[in-house]
Amino acid sequence: MAMAMRLPAIARAATEMAAAPGGLRRLFCSNATKFSFLSPQSNTETPARPQADPSTNLFVSGLSKRTTSEGLRTAFAQFGDVADAKVVTDRVSGYSKGFGFVRYATLEDSAKGIAGMDGKFLDGWVIFAEYARPREPSQTYQPQNNMSRPPYGNNRY
């Protein structure tokens, strides 16, 4: 009987929440305040990614899995002399990982390539072109000395 008396109160609370700003999402979602379409956010913008220095090497992202290195070269060749074009592929499947690199002969050609292909369609997908950033040194594990034994497992070499 007590359960039957609580149900109308719960239903009334749910209808009040549905009419309130944020609606049922606030009732059922714990992170409803994170959605920008539910509550207006202040005009604080996230800091933009730092731009890479101009170079002849371009980073191209948003590639289709059907895009080949030759197709990438052909698309970018209309804006200048392409020295090299490479689509990075998965070792197992051989499909594109969705990004690649294009190297032009001159800085002027690379600037034309970015202006001409950034935000354009290639193989049905919108691609993005920007100057490539230099590769950061890898942070791999390096033992302090070569004579130390691993701290786990069988200590035989």
What does this structure look like?
The longest helix is centred in the first third of the chain and has 18 residues, at 2-19. The chain has 157 residues and is an alpha+beta fold. It has a domain at 57-131: Alpha-Beta Plaits. The radius of gyration is 27 Å and the shape is extended. Strand 4 and strand 5 (125-126) form a beta hairpin. The chain has helices spanning 2-19, 23-28, 69-77, 107-117; strands at residues 57-61, 82-89, 96-104, 121-122, 125-126, 128-131. It has a four-stranded antiparallel beta sheet with strand order 2-3-1-6, covered by helices on one side. The protein has a two-stranded antiparallel sheet with strand order 4-5. Residues 136-157 are annotated as: Disordered. Residues 137-148 have a biased composition (Polar residues).
> Helical amount among residues, as a percent range?
25-40%
Helix-strand category: alpha+beta
Which superfamily, in CATH terms, is the homologous superfamily of the domain at 57-131? RRM (RNA recognition motif) domain
Largest sheet features: 4 strands, antiparallel
**Which fold name fills CATH's third level, the topology of the domain at 57-131?**
Alpha-Beta Plaits
Q: What gap, in angstroms, lies between the N and C termini?
A: 72 Å
- 3D shape: extended
Which spans of ≥5 residues are poorly predicted at pLDDT below 50? none
CATH class of the domain at 57-131 reads Alpha Beta
Note the beta-strand portion: 15-25%
In CATH terms, what is the architecture of the domain at 57-131?
2-Layer Sandwich
User: So how many helices?
Assistant: 4
Spatial extent as radius of gyration: 27 Å
* Secondary structure tally: strands: 6
H-E order: HHEHEEHEEE
Mean pLDDT comes to 77
The neighbouring-strand order within the major sheet is 2-3-1-6
Domain RRM: 56-134
Organism: Microthlaspi erraticum
InterPro entries: Nucleotide-bd_a/b_plait_sf, RBD_domain_sf, RRM_dom
Pfam families: RRM_1
